[in-house]
Amino acid sequence: MDCLAFSITYRLASETRKKVLNLFSHKNPNPDGISKLKIISLVINESLRLYPLMIGIIRKVDKEVGLGHLILLPNLHFYISNLALHHDPQIWGEVVHKFKSDRFSQGIAKTANDYNGASFFPFGIGPQTCVGMNLALTQVKIALSMILQRDGSSLPSTSSPPF
């Protein structure tokens, strides 16, 4: 996961570090504490939206199905670009390219300007969602917690991007 955008926002990094230190002090993160770090989940989701692990998924149609005005025939392979969906201003608003971790504060389903909650799928969607998703997210939460616990001196001092 690319956390460049997180490191750009000093206020967010500083606030997250304080919460991590309040929960764990300088001890190893534990499951109870990790589940209380909502702010890290918000940061991870926004990072995954801006910088997805995969740029799309391919699905095969098993039986004829209608999709809006289209009819998809059996054995058709189609590509769903989550990169395009994750950067669509109609779904995410005019500030689609800006890192806004609070975008996910109401939950993933209520985040986007759509009604089905299927505009954010960094680990796939449906029955073929990555089986390692929960493990990966937990590992990232632990890693970020440990980084923030041990090194506050490298937090950025500005809120403007370095590029």
Automatic annotation (TrEMBL):
The keyword Ribonucleoprotein does not apply. GO terms for cellular component: membrane. Keywords: Heme, Iron, Membrane, Metal-binding, Monooxygenase, Oxidoreductase, Transmembrane, Transmembrane helix. The lineage of its organism: Eukaryota, Viridiplantae, Streptophyta, Embryophyta, Tracheophyta. PANTHER family: CYTOCHROME P450 CYP749A22-LIKE, CYTOCHROME P450 FAMILY MEMBER. It comes from Parasponia andersonii (Sponia andersonii). It holds the Pfam family p450. Belongs to the cytochrome P450 family. It is found in: Membrane. Gene3D superfamilies: Cytochrome P450. It is a single-pass membrane protein. GO terms for molecular function: heme binding; iron ion binding; monooxygenase activity; oxidoreductase activity, acting on paired donors, with incorporation or reduction of molecular oxygen. Its cofactor is heme. Heme binds at C130. This is Cytochrome P450, E-class, group IV.
